[in-house]
Amino acid sequence: MSTLEEQKILIELETMPFIVGPTDNEQERKQQEFDDVTTKKEENSNGLSSVKSVISTMISRKNGISATSGLINFICGMIGPGCFSLAVSFKQAGLWGGLVLVFIVGFLSLYSMHKIVSCSQYLAKSNGDQSLDYGQMAEAAMLNSYKWTKRHAKLTKIIVNACLLAFQLGVITVFMVFAVEHVIEIWEFIGDSPPPFSKTVMILLYFVPQMLLNFIGHMKLITILCLCGNVIIFGAIILITKELMVHKWYPTWELNSVTGIEGISLAAGALIYSFEGQAMVLPLENSLKHPKDMTGASGVLSTAMNLVTVLYAFLGFFGYVTFGPKVQGSLTLNLPNSILTVSIKGLLVLKIFFGSAIQLFVIVQMLLPSLRSLISEDRKLIHRFLPYALRLGLMLISLCLALVVPNLMQIIPLVGITSGLLISLILPSFLDCIVFLPVYKKQGEMFLYYQKLIINVFLFVLGWLFLGSGLYSSIDDIINNDV
Questions:
Q1: Which of 433, 445, 118 has the alpha carbon at shortest distance from 296?
Q2: Contact 332, 182 (CB under 8 A)
Q3: What pLDDT does 47 receive?
């Protein structure tokens, strides 16, 4: 998973001319302006529009981006520092267990993304062509479903946004640990000796300039720098690929084929973290000139996820075969130190450094309006310093988590198996049922009703089982320091 907010901000900049922003009190949703809307209405005997007819509504936006631009944005958003940790997942799940698991998690992530897009398109088009983000889509789903769900609409939006915030804070924590571990490698290469400080002290030292950067409220320059940093990510992938191809491989029979449930749960958490892109799906879909290009067998989602899954499988499989039991939390840490590789590591640290500021900026933008509404307008001094206090508080939370879990092999599965799993599997299954089950029942399409119900209940229960076992395994791994 890359810094998703970089891609979201870029998309917003690219599509600004056709979006009318929210009002000053931020109560109105963004309303899109379209070139032409052609709706294929098919009324059934009860006078209800079919799900298929609503979702198949043909929309063309005035200044939306092309499918090719959307594909590039999505791939750049998916491929980030998390892809370098995939070999550890193969170590935890076993060589062949990890290979199977990476395709299963990739498929489930793609399936959940299609659910999110389908729900959003149905709700948006049936309610007036609104542009919905994840939290707004969850609220709209509850308001347009059964009677008993309407009173829980705001709570559902809060839960979804809370999961997104928790995941973003987890990403900041991972970035902090990732950066410090690479700084240590750079120090050892330049000084020809380990740094004189412990990792805990190094994290605290890194926190100071990171916090100063996070006090900046204008993100345009930082966003551009981070987007340029995607070139560094791909450069690192090329270097790693070269190393994987020329390095001597471990015989596959000397490596674990499949491990136990604990290892598989940890591996699933790391893979879910790497595949997490659900928060980026709706902003991207809202920016496309033709939203229908997002779905389908050759759509943006399927094409991007297929390419990313193959790349992840390659890095994970050959990373474990190449480095075996010695594989570290990031494949970049296994690269032999040279001027080139250390330069790449340094640039990755800069990419992470600026990316963390964007992650925090978006969290602050989500929380700040609600906090300001609780404070009297007369207290201007408090309003002035509130954004800085909020940034400091959120960064201190990430700092504490980084100090408690200062290891990439442990922090990535922990973030992925908790908030990552909720966002990518559990919540989409629930919302898909809430949106479409009452529609299918009213239309008398009982086969589709029970098919969707059975699949989503299975995935919902499976998600909670993995969350429970994965959380237990992560906590046990952290306590026993079994790395």
A1: 118
A2: yes
A3: 40
User: Is residue 37 domain-resident?
Assistant: yes
pLDDT band, residue 205 (cuts 50/70/90): very high
Give the residue carrying structure tokens 């900049």.
Answer: 13
Token digits for 302? Answer: 């399927």
In sequence order, the β-bridge partners of residue 34 are 61
What 8-state DSSP symbol labels residue 65?
B
Token pair in block for residue 245: 């191809």
Report which listed range, 26-35, 220-229, 311-320, is most confident: 311-320
- Whether residue 440 is contained in a domain is answered as no
Q: Which amino acid is at 293?
A: D
Beta carbons of 102 and 271 less than 8 angstroms apart = yes
In angstroms, rounded to a whole number, what is the distance separating the alpha carbons of residues 253 and 68? Answer: 42
User: Number of folded domains in the chain?
Assistant: 1
Question: What amino acid is encoded at 142 in this protein?
Answer: M
Note whether residue 370 is domain-resident.
no
Q: Are 412 and 82 in contact (CB under 8 A)?
A: yes
Q: Which long-range contacts (CB under 8 A, 24 or more apart) does 362-365 make?
A: 362/5, 362/8, 362/9, 362/168, 363/165, 363/168, 363/169, 363/394, 364/390, 364/391, 364/394
Q: Give the mean pLDDT of 249-265.
A: 89
Half-sphere exposure of 226 (CA within 13 A, CB side): 26
**β-pair partners for 65:** 288
Window from 188-202, 217-231, 367-381 with minimum mean pLDDT? 217-231
Q: What is the pLDDT of residue 219?
A: 59
User: Helical H runs in 192-299?
Assistant: 199-214, 220-246, 261-275, 278-287
Residue 377 lies in a domain: no
First to last CA, the chain: 22
Range of the domain at 105: 4-12+31-362+390-423
Cα–Cα separations (whole angstroms), residue 461 to 379, 413, 426, 454, 468: 48, 20, 8, 11, 11
Identify the H or E element spanning 483.
none
Pairwise CA distance, residues 355 & 350, whole Å = 8
Contact call for residues 240 and 84 (beta carbons, < 8 A): yes
Helix H or strand E segment including 95? helix 95-126
Helix (H, G, I), strand (E, B) or coil at 290: coil
Residue 483 has pLDDT above 90, yes or no: no
The helix or strand, by DSSP H or E, that contains position 389, with its residue range, turns out to be: helix 380-404
Measured in degrees and rounded to the nearest 5, phi and psi for residue 294 equal: -75, -35
